[in-house]
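dumping the sequnces here before i forget
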Amino acid sequence: MKPIDQLQTIALTYHQICQGEQPWVALGNFMNDWFDYAKERRSELVAVPISLPETLSHEAFRWAVFCTASVEYLCDRYEILCPSWVHNLNYRLPEPWFDAPMAHKPQVREYLIEQTPEPFTRRNIYCGNRMFENKYELAEQYRRLLATQPSPAIP
Amino acid sequence: MQAQDIEKYLADLGHQLHYLEVQQPVRILMVGGAYMLTQFHNRPTTNDVDVLLKDVDDPTTSQVYQIFKTAVRAVASKNQIPVTWINDVIGDFLRDTSIVPQGALWRSYGPLEVYIPPSEYILALKLLAGRQKDRVDIQLLCPLLHIQTREQAQQLVDQYVPNKRVQQINDFDKTLKLLFP
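..and the predicted 3d for all of it:
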């Protein structure tokens, strides 16, 4: 577990992925900081650019592009000034990446194309729109919905 | 956090609760990545330990909850880890929206009792969430629990999260289309 005072920045997150950490464990730690532990320090979480490893595998480049798209998407959604490094045109996949278990099926690809936010599709990533759903916002979202609508009848 | 870290920190938490002279058992239900890691070993690490306190209905008024949080902070301080190493933020949501199973006792550390729910409940929550990060767990649990079709997945989620509005908030129909095209 990371030390108590260490921010889980996107640069650290990508470094951990390159070091063999499971991408969604590293990204999950980043999400914990973004949505809760360090939500007052969001600019700091994305300020430092990711650093590509000397030997860049296909997989490592995919995640570099994913991290870049994520920063642009999150900054836009949470009104944080987007750091300039994410606009580096090199962070774009040469081939589309359809990230879903049944991605070989045309209807799944169609769905992913339709649902994925633009910072990802522009970089050739098609992953849907639920990647940053999180427990911190879910409960709040549920409370808000219940407050605006009549109480649901639980079957 | 690795499996042995989880057990170490939970043991520390039990000691702290004992030190704080807690008499009644403090019963927690472990869900999320920590459940998958300790029960199925399908990953080397997890972000945090997601739990629901079984005997706390309202954290704002519960004395047990305040003592629990004090003990959690002490463990964090002792081990130099974030206070959110154990996370109950999902607790209210689960209590309000799902049929929480009693679970089976997995570990006892002094007054701390750690329960685990049936894997069907975990799969229902993972299907409902439908995120990329849940995919590895869904892919493990679906065949294990013989969930092969959209209808079976719907039935499982209905069993634990029958409120259709909650399913709507989570775009569960879209997740079903994606996972069972």
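Helices of chain A lie at 10-18, 23-37, 42-47, 58-77, 106-115, 118-121, 135-148.
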